[in-house]
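1st attempt posting a full record on here, be nice pls
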Amino acid sequence: MGKFLDQFSSKLAELTPTEKQVLYYIDNHIDEAKTHSLTEIAKVNNVSTTTIVRMSHKLGLEGFSELKYILKTIENQHIMLRDNPVERYKEEFVSAFETIQKTELEKLSEKIVNAKRVMVVGVGLSKMMAEYFSKLLMQTNKQTHYTYESHMIDLLPNMVEPNDLVFFISSSGETKTLVQAAEKLSYKVVDTAAITNASDSTLGKMVKTNLSMTVGRVKFAGYDITARSTLMLLIDLLFESYLKRSVK
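the predicted structure (as tokens):
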């Protein structure tokens, strides 16, 4: 099996002969499949586009777009094996810094100053970031609370008050638990914000203010190694901006 097919070996038994044909084609023609549209791959294999979408779902993917993303990451893994990680991170960080919107940074620091209470929410690997941010604010005697438990996040709409500021911290900005909580809060008279690695994320669009660095999603050997240190940098920048405003 090729590098692409290896990822789905446990799913092969669920595919029909036609779906297997498409999968084998992609595995043997990765360079072409990477650039082909859904319609083009369907035409080459003499199948319907529905067949390919159905195959993608059986493989545990959201659709054809995620399949194409995996094809791209296979190429990136070859590049990463040759890369010097220090140089790669340096380039990514310099590029990410250029995407910070300073107006959002200033706006959020002012909101923290004016908020009666700041509530910080993070789950998974972002949980540590939420705790770090809340403890920074606690040092300045700002009334702060952080939560990471799903049942507490579900209760947020009942806990918040009009003068609260709710922060969501998420690398992808697509974490289902946080997106659902932000959507519920959008119907409440409360200020919301997010710190993410994606300016166009669902979470970023759901809150009133989104502070982000645009960081490319990176997977290697099946692991998500997207830099999360950028979230820490954004938190540090925001805290310093807030501190200067509160001292004034």
